[in-house]
Write a structure and sequence with these properties.
Blueprint: E1 7-11, H1 15-26, E2 30-35, H2 43-52, E3 55-58, H3 63-67, E4 71-74, H4 83-90, E5 95-97, H5 98-105, E6 109-114, H6 119-132, E7 136-141, E8 158-163, H7 166-170, E9 179-182, H8 196-204, E10 215-219, E11 233-238, E12 246-250, E13 253-258, E14 261-267, H9 276-291, H10 296-305, E15 314-319, E16 322-326, H11 333-341, E17 347-351, H12 361-364, H13 367-370, E18 371-376, H14 381-388, E19 394-396, H15 400-410, E20 416-419, H16 432-450
Parallel strand pairs: 1-2, 1-4, 2-3, 4-5, 6-8, 6-9, 7-8, 9-10, 10-11, 11-12, 16-20, 17-18, 17-20, 18-19
Antiparallel strand pairs: 12-13, 13-14, 15-16
Length: about 450
């Protein structure tokens, strides 16, 4: 698309919106940035907008700025169902996300990863494997730096390994990854989607533009994924199935099999990440790397050297025999269940935050065998308490710092205090990273006081 002289409205003034605005301005567009937040809450963003030559309209979504745009660039956090966007689309005004805008100019190849859980760990590991193998690799998307930020340095020999959320996938049009993966599908973001099916359909958009020249990697243990019908060449990974082609368990070893070759990739004992879900993440990453032509020995070496990503079952400290783990990225119930199942028991579990519309009842079955105490914080505390009462002892506290203190007071040597909230963070924190950082700071403070 030729952006020179076009009036472009960019919705959302966080990291992605500002990066998109800067990209478009460099290509000659007249850009207006818009955000619901009041001026007092986004002074820094308004200053940045001015510095790059964009107009800023904040405190609401006035319809007139939508209807005068030649096209609209939408940030992931903004729903496509926003009334002003729906009206603009009805007038024929295109609405695109940053991933689609970047892809329009891209020369390199994309390996795109989505799923309800495990996206960031799998994306980071896949990028590490590609890079260690000598491939020019960029890790981008929902994992941190927007893809669009790299387009000024794009080259034909670059692999863009991208984490993609359902929000980002809502706004793609022609985006086509050479390799795509859906890791799993479980209920999430039901505060944004009107049903689980519409959320799952957004995830499935990751492969809708693929052709027979492309690869799709799916979780064979997920009943919603193992029978997907796609034009691309489909490969499964599985902890339960023996596969002719794909990545699977055989005894205590991880097997890789495809037309590129087959054999034992590595013993399970050599995987450094905790939890069965991380075995699946390793399988997905290894299979994608294998399909990209990376030798098994190189994949094995990268996996063995990889360590947990921050805020994802991240070990923090041991204080007087009590372990502390930060899984702040467990922002839905399924992620929390996976975190709980990574331990044999003796857990003091910190839960709560902003409710996302799902049920907390699935956690209940694990409580008698795994959870000594549930400590509840945040907006969703009442709902979680109603779901878990009688399954394990519960305590209510007013802050995450108090939850850490209470957990340590109630723990004995051999116990684990685990932050795995099953909720979004926005009731008390800027994001899940901020929540995890506060947890780790509280643990570090406790460590100092405990000597």
């Amino acid at each position: 698309m030729n952006y020179a002289g076009k009036n472009v409205l960019v919705i959302g003034m966080a990291r992605t919106g500002l990066a998109t605005a800067e990209y478009l301005i460099k290509r000659g567009a007249h850009v207006t940035l818009n955000d619901m937040k009041p001026e007092t809450a986004c002074a820094d963003e308004i200053a940045r907008a001015g510095a790059i030559g964009a107009e800023a309209v904040v405190g609401g979504h006035p319809e007139e700025i939508f209807l005068r745009a030649d096209f609209i660039a939408i940030s992931p956090g903004v729903p496509m169902a926003l009334p002003a966007i729906v009206k603009a689309q009805s007038r024929g005004i295109p609405v695109l996300g940053d991933m689609e805008i970047a892809f329009d100019e891209m020369k390199g190849r994309v390996c795109a990863i989505t799923g309800s859980n495990g996206k960031t760990t799998t994306t980071a590991l896949t990028g590490r494997i590609f890079s260690d193998a000598g491939l020019k690799t960029v890790i981008a998307g929902n994992i941190g730096t927007p893809l669009i930020s790299f387009m000024d340095h794009d080259s034909r020999d670059t692999w863009f390994v991208c984490e993609m959320s359902s929000f980002q996938l809502e706004s793609i049009d022609h985006f086509r990854p050479c390799i795509a993966s859906i890791l799993n599908l479980t209920p999430d973001h039901l505060d944004r989607y009107n049903s689980f099916e519409s959320y799952a359909d957004a995830k499935r958009r990751i492969y809708r533009n693929q052709t027979t020249d492309d690869f799709l990697v799916l979780n064979g243990d997920d009943p919603l994924l193992r029978h997907e019908e796609a034009r691309s060449r489909t490969f499964l990974f599985s902890r339960k199935l023996q596969l002719k082609e794909g990545c699977f368990l055989q005894g205590d070893g991880l097997m890789l099999s495809s037309r590129n070759g087959s054999g034992v990739l590595m013993p399970l004992a050599r995987i450094p990440l905790k939890g069965d879900h991380n075995i699946e993440n390793v399988m997905a990453a290894a299979l994608m790397a294998h399909l990209a032509g990376i030798p098994s020995e190189s994949i094995r070496r990268s996996v063995e050297e990889f360590r947990a990503v921050a805020h994802r079952l991240q070990f923090v400290a041991t204080i007087r025999g009590v372990d502390f783990y930060n899984d702040s990225k467990a922002t839905n119930v399924d992620a929390t269940i996976k975190a709980i199942e990574s331990f044999t028991g003796n857990l003091i579990l910190i839960l709560g935050g902003k409710d996302k519309g799902g049920s907390y009842a699935p956690i209940r079955d694990l409580c008698p065998s795994h959870v000594k105490l549930g400590i509840l914080i945040g907006q969703a505390a009442d709902k979680i308490e109603a779901a878990l009462t009688g399954a394990c002892p519960l305590a209510r506290v007013g802050s995450l710092e108090k939850a850490v203190e209470t957990g340590f007071e109630r723990a004995t040597a051999g116990d684990t205090v685990l932050l795995a909230p099953a909720c979004a963070s926005f009731d008390m924190f800027h994001n899940f990273e901020h929540r995890g950082d506060v947890f780790m700071q509280a643990v570090r403070g406790l460590e100092k006081r405990a000597g």
